[in-house]
Amino acid sequence: MRLPHLLLDIDGVLVPFPDDHGNIPATHVRHDVVPTGRSADAPVTVWLNAADGPMLMDVIRSGLVAPVWCTSWRQDATTLIGPLLSLPPLPHVDLPRPQITTSHPNGYLWKRDHVDAWLGDAPAIWIDDDFTNLDHAWATERTDRGAATLLLQPDPYVGLRAEHLMEALEWAGQLSVAHDGEPGDSRGTGAA
Q: pTM value?
C-alpha cells in the first residue's frame, strides 16, 4: 500500500488569521519573510507556533504518511516556512496562480481540481481551513472509489492543533492495518 499523502496548507492552518480585533493566538510568534517575487522592502508577516514544528516532525517520523505542502506558498513553503518550524525540505503540489476573487469559484476550494489530478488514486489526508460541503462530498466519493481521503479543517483563527495530527495518525494507522496482508503488500509478512 502507498503511504497516504499528508497535504498541508499554511494560511489558516500554520498561520492563523487575525480575529475581528486583529488578535493572533498568543502561542504564535511574528516572522517577516520575503516570498519569491517580492522585494525585501516589502516582507510578508506570518505568525507561527514553534510547537507545530515538533508536532509535525512526530507525524513525519511515524512513517505513516508522506508529507507534502499544498499551499499557495508553493515552493516558498519549503524555503521560508518549513525552516522556521525546523522542518526538513518537503515536496509541494505545484498549484497554479489563478486570477480569482474567492477561494471557492465553483462552490468548492480552488485547489481541489489540481490536488485531485496530482493525487490520482493515492490515499490522502488533507489539512486545510477552507473546505466546503462540496469538498467533503468529493472526499467521500474518492474514498468510495478506493482512494481513501480524510479532510481535516482547523479553525482558521486558531490554526493547527495536536488533535488534528492525532486524528491524521490514527486514520493513517487504521488505513495501514486495513491494507496489511493484501496481495502485493509485504508488510507484516516477513517478505522483503
A: 0.89
What residues pair up with 152 in beta bridges, in sequence order?
Answer: 127
* pLDDT tens series, the chain, 192 aa: 689 999 999 999 999 999 999 999 999 999 999 999 999 999 999 999 999 999 999 999 999 999 999 999 999 999 999 999 999 999 999 998 877 777 877 788 889 999 999 999 999 999 999 999 999 999 999 999 999 999 999 999 999 999 999 999 999 999 878 766 554 443 333 333
Q: What gap in Å lies between CA 126 and CA 108, rounded to an integer?
A: 14
Radius of gyration of the chain (CA): 17
Q: Residue 10 is placed in which grid cell? A: 499554511
- H or E element: which one contains 119? helix 112-119
d(CA 142, CA 123): 9
Record the cell numbers describing residue 41, joined without a space.
522592502
Number of other residues whose CB lies within 10 A of the CB of residue 67: 20
Q: Check if the beta carbon of residue 154 is closer than 8 Å to that of residue 46.
A: no
Q: CA distances (Å), 8 to each of 39, 70, 189, in order?
A: 26, 5, 32
